[in-house]
Specification:
Layout (H helix, E strand, L loop, with lengths): L1 H17 L15 H15 L8 H16 L3 H16 L6 H17 L5 H20 L3 H18 L2 H18 L5 H14 L6 H17 L3 H14 L5 H16 L3 H12 L4 H17 L7 H20 L3 H119 L5 H12 L3 H8 L5 H11 L4 H8 L3 H15 L10
Helix pairs in contact: 1-16, 2-3, 2-4, 3-4, 4-5, 5-6, 5-16, 6-7, 6-8, 7-8, 8-9, 8-10, 9-10, 10-11, 10-12, 11-12, 12-13, 12-14, 13-14, 14-15, 16-17, 19-21, 20-21
């Protein structure tokens, strides 16, 4: 038994030592250098805000200087942010950039090694980098790689509660499933778009709302719901300014919708807006659409400058693709390493659990002997208690029998009293009913005010439920018809009824005629108790 205990302790200690790095995470502390903080925030606001090509040398040069400074330091948080910043500076110029991918992956590796993604600043930075790497993989048309980075970004943003990056990641996933999804995955794209729009607030997150509406519009476009797609494209237009990349992306995608609907003039106008973009990829897409629109309109001469631009653009794409051929393998290699580390961490925890189970087994075996002795003592105590309980139960049964006899006698007495009271009430009610004709005649003869109300009150006192039964059986009777129904039962003549109701005798006779039709000559006695 001791040997098992020692083995279990050894397993737990060794495995916790192997997993010690997870307990040694650092706390991210932003640099106290005010110039550095201001610089990285301003640069990030430009390229993360999707307003590319607005960099100036006054920002780029000091940013790279700070990157070199941070790379030499032992401040891992500063290193991670500087790699992120440097990657963004390169990514701004070339969305396929191998150099940008290297910087972003280096930042992720630093975060993986030294920080916990559940810490708010770390999770936020992790989410931003995964979002951009997902876009890079998207440009290489690698669905699996792009989707995995997008989900990592969404998970990190959800853990730290960063709504803006949650919404961006949802928009990204919606676009990925719409663009690369297999049959049946269109619903997943709609799910992410609708869920994001449900969480989004256009006043607080205009850019994120515009991204989600753009993704939803693309889903609708590929579902051939062109009117709804145009609505969301135009609404997305209104939320961003013309310097934003998304503005031109909305323009070219809306142009495709109009082109599909054979509205070539509108498609031409939207394509011209997108052609003003500084992004080479979007500008090339706009050029293709312009060529198609001009050819559809029969204006082949206007297509010539755009053909020339497309030829130059294709040559640039070939050079860029050759230069950045290693970017996608690096992304997939990082994901494979991450998956392997997660698998190893799972094995470590399984080993720790096995060690703890071994310790638990030793403790259980050690306690079994004590439990046997305790059971013997409990058995003796239970026998003594049973004997005492038997005596107590016998005494209790005698008392219960006596109490039951008393309760039975009291119940019988109570029932007799209830019967006597019921008989008295019945006699009183019968007497009241017997005297009812005389009382209503006296009221009629007295010539006092409110004779009709007093007669009806006397009738309802004698027969409380009669009028309710009449209303339930004949809901179409008017209040006047119900009164005449009662007065007829009380043997009042038409002239007397007219006197009580303040009507003419002919009117009363008409009411009685209508009453007989509605009740089918049913006697009022049928509604009495």
């Amino acid at each position: 038994m001791k040997r098992i205990l020692y083995i279990g302790l050894l397993i737990v200690v060794v495995m916790m030592g192997c997993n010690k790095r997870e307990c040694d995470f650092l706390s991210p502390i932003d640099s106290q250098d005010a110039e550095y903080t201001e610089l990285i925030d301003s640069v990030e606001a430009i390229y993360v805000g999707n307003k590319y090509y607005d960099f100036t040398d006054s920002l780029v040069s000091p940013a790279l200087a700070f990157y070199e400074k941070g790379d030499r330091s032992r401040d891992y948080w500063m290193q991670a942010r500087c790699h992120y910043l440097a990657g963004g500076l390169v990514f701004d110029k070339n969305h396929f950039s191998e150099e940008a991918t290297v910087h972003f992956l280096e930042a992720l590796k630093i975060l993986d090694s030294h920080f916990d993604a559940k810490q708010a600043p770390v999770g936020r930075l992790y989410s931003k980098i995964c979002y951009i790497l997902s876009r890079i993989a998207f440009n290489f048309s690698d669905k699996l790689c792009s989707t995995r980075f997008a989900r990592y970004g969404l998970d990190c943003a959800s853990v730290v509660g960063d709504t803006a990056w949650m919404l961006r990641s949802m928009a990204n996933l919606g676009l990925l499933y719409e663009r690369f999804g297999k049959a049946g995955e269109g619903d997943t794209a709609f799910f992410y778009c609708h869920k994001g729009l449900h969480l989004a607030n256009a006043d607080r997150f205009p850019y994120e709302t515009a991204l989600l509406e753009n993704s939803l519009a693309n889903c609708l476009r590929h579902s051939h719901e062109y009117d709804s797609a145009i609505f969301y494209f135009e609404h997305s237009f209104a939320l961003v300014d013309s310097s934003c990349l998304l503005f031109h992306r909305n323009a070219i995608e809306k142009a495709y919708v109009h082109y599909k609907a054979h509205d070539y003039a509108t498609a031409l106008a939207d394509s011209k807006v997108a052609y003003q973009s500084k992004d080479e990829n979007l500008k090339a897409q706009a050029a293709y659409c312009l060529v198609d629109c001009y050819e559809a309109l029969g204006d082949t001469l206007s297509t010539l400058p755009f053909y020339a631009f497309l030829k130059t653009s294709e040559e640039k794409d070939v050079v860029a693709s050759n230069h950045n051929a290693k970017a996608l393998p690096m992304l997939n290699a990082y994901l494979s390493d991450k998956q392997r580390l997660e698998h190893r961490a799972g094995i470590v925890w399984v080993a720790i659990i096995v060690g703890l189970l071994a310790l638990t087994a030793v403790v259980v075996l050690a306690k079994q002997k004590g439990r046997k002795m305790l059971k013997q003592q409990q058995a003796e105590a239970e026998r003594a208690l049973k004997a005492k309980d038997s005596q107590h139960e016998l005494e209790l049964k005698v008392k219960q029998d006596e109490a039951l006899r008393q309760l039975e006698a009291a119940r019988q007495s109570h029932e007799e009293e209830v019967k006597r009271l019921q008989a008295t009430v019945e006699q009183s009610s019968q007497h009241q009913r017997d005297m009812l004709p005389q009382r209503v005649k006296d009221i009629y003869s007295s010539k006092v005010e409110n004779r009709l109300e007093r007669i009806m009150a006397e009738f309802e006192a004698a027969y409380p439920n009669a009028l309710g039964r009449v209303a339930a059986a004949h809901p179409d009777l008017t209040p006047t018809e119900r009164r005449i129904f009662v007065l007829s039962h009380l043997q009042f003549r038409a002239k007397e009824m007219a006197d009580l109701l303040g009507l003419s005798e002919n009117t009363v006779n008409q009411y009685r005629y209508n009453l007989r039709k509605k009740t089918e000559n049913t006697s009022f006695s049928a509604f009495l108790d």
